[in-house]
Amino acid sequence: MSQENNTTPDTQPDQGRRRFLNTAAFAGLAGAGLSVGLSACKQEQAAAPAATGSVAPRAAAAASSGGAGKYHLEPGELDTYYGLWSGGHTGDFRVLGLPSGRELHRVPCFVPDALVGWGHTNESKAVMGTRPDGSLKYTVGDTHHTHASYKDGNYDGRYAWINDKINSRIARIRLDYFICDKITDLPNVQGFHGIFPDKRDPVDPAINYTTRVFCGAEFHTPLPNDGRDLEAPEKYRTLFSCVDAETMEVRWQVLIDGNCDLVATSFDGKLAATNQYNTEGGYHYEGMMSAERDACLFFNIARIEQAVKDGKFRTYGDSRVPVVDGTKAANTDPATSLVCYVTVPKNPHGVNASPDGKYFICAGKLSPTATVIELTKVLDWFDGKVNDADETIVAEVELGLGPLHTAFDGRGNAYTTLFLDSQIVKWNVDAAIKFHSGDTSAQYVVDRLDVHYQPGHINASQSETMFADGKWLCVGCKFSKDRFLPVGPLHAETEQLVDISGEKMKLVADHPVRPEPHDFIIFKRELLNPKKIYSHDDFPLAITDPKDAGVYRNGNKVTVKITSLAPAFEPREFKVKRGDEVTIILTNLDRIEDLTHGFAIPKYNVNFIVNPQETASVTFKADKPGVFWCYCTHFCHALHLEMRSRMIVEA
Ligand code: CUA
Ligand code: CA
């Protein structure tokens, strides 16, 4: 490969590369025989200020701070926001500090993790799920969306949830310990993608916090998917699911037309929404794009739960989860409908609720538009006061090529990613509504910013709460190309930080991230109050007194109770016999913040950690005789290297 193909000269202007990427991405689509009406944006020519794409990142980085405050922190300074990030097909959940962009933590949930011992300890295996032989049910995951629990229209710091698209699982992360405590398999679905908690109860005003989590599934399959109806397209269906926030049981599902994508919920608790594509029920992408409009679906939660109570549901296969019929054909009378279908142009991607509680915005993806739907009108439709569901649309305006996701600043502006244009467009929602209603002088596009490159998700600080503060915006760019030192063919992704406190957006930092995060939320650090150490009460197996440490034999089942207190394990040696089934229970008796110990056993594939006051256990067969130094893997003390226990396996 020639040098020219391998590297991009420093002098090549950004615009040139951006144009190349656009051409490449667009050519791919055009080659697929698309006619998606990717016309130049009228508004762009009429109203957009000169593109800010020439902002040189190096020059921006030299600036110390913008209106949102400092983004470069001095040593010892703490971030002012938490960011919760999906990890994509690493299968993890990440915690970033913002505005610095520093990665603080990864919480393992769907896939094993060597640091923590996730997927190795008995406790984590119980959360992940095992096969009859004790091995993990799944070892891969693909996390796309994470959202946190609400109270009074803001995050309350209890939980976050994250999806696994590969195996259609939902995990809950406790935000006091930053650990995954439950994982639920969704029945009857494949390609579980969008996720969003409700913000209050649809009927009980006293419940002004999250009690349900909604899950959209993308891939349609025969129902039940047990080998029947393999070539019967009309039998292929997807479902929208509701999971109980506390028990993590699946409460109910809704059969729908088309494929679900993202999910959003209203602040009044009455509606959940998903943007829908593949109305056509196609197997291949050509077949998924023939219709000019797909839809945004609105679920009437109170009516669905009443239908379940009234027994108006069915089940599929082995699943006992009630499934109500939300197809368009079964919901023609608004007065009794469970679901409202509002049409949106061409394979929409992303649906987002504005922080004023008034609008849901669907981005067109294959159409250069965003559609603004007014929630009170959707409620009016369910009340029979609006004839045509499309009368709930108050704006449908052109933004640019490949609109995907939208964030908000709490000042009436929306920020939408344009995948093909590699831009963020800032637009004013009220002005867009005026423009749509005929006032062609309404200038809804406020600003455009080039990003690097091909942005997917976007989010702003506190964006989808009633307290959107309009300070910071992050954009997840799917291609980094030349933004970082090359490390071989696999590139980092670029999470770019933008100061949105002023009229014009200001790109202030690039952060490389390991592929490939999709979505994230950003909120004020005061909303979380993480615990510093564990409590023995959380662990039924805790060994609270070192005197209880030792070997307990029951036939060939042996339990070895071990405590750690820097710099020693108790007992310092123990004997088992070849052929024993050994369970090691380790309690960390240290109470000091940050004093974590590890426990590894050579040749036995054992390695896990115990944080202060935590208990964890592993079980294995002692099939190799000899001496095995169980050692502390996590630096804890000046005598860390000496912190060992001798396991003797007698032949
Ligand atoms: Cu204990 Cu290192
Ligand atoms: Ca379509």
From TrEMBL:
Keywords: Calcium, Copper, Metal-binding, Oxidoreductase, Periplasm, Signal. GO terms for cellular component: membrane; periplasmic space. The keyword Disulfide bond does not apply. Its cofactor is Ca(2+); Cu cation. The keyword Transmembrane does not apply. Its EC number is 1.7.2.4. Its main location: periplasm. Residues 555-651 form the Cytochrome oxidase subunit II copper A binding domain. Pathway: Nitrogen metabolism; nitrate reduction (denitrification); dinitrogen from nitrate: step 4/4. InterPro entries: CcO_II-like_C, Cupredoxin, EfeO_Cupredoxin, N2O_reductase_N, N2OR_C, NO_Rdtase, Nos_propeller, NOS_propeller_2. NCBIfam families: nitrous_NosZ_RR. Homodimer. Belongs to the NosZ family. In the C-terminal section; belongs to the cytochrome c oxidase subunit 2 family. Nitrous-oxide reductase is part of a bacterial respiratory system which is activated under anaerobic conditions in the presence of nitrate or nitrous oxide. This is Nitrous-oxide reductase. It comes from Pseudothauera lacus.
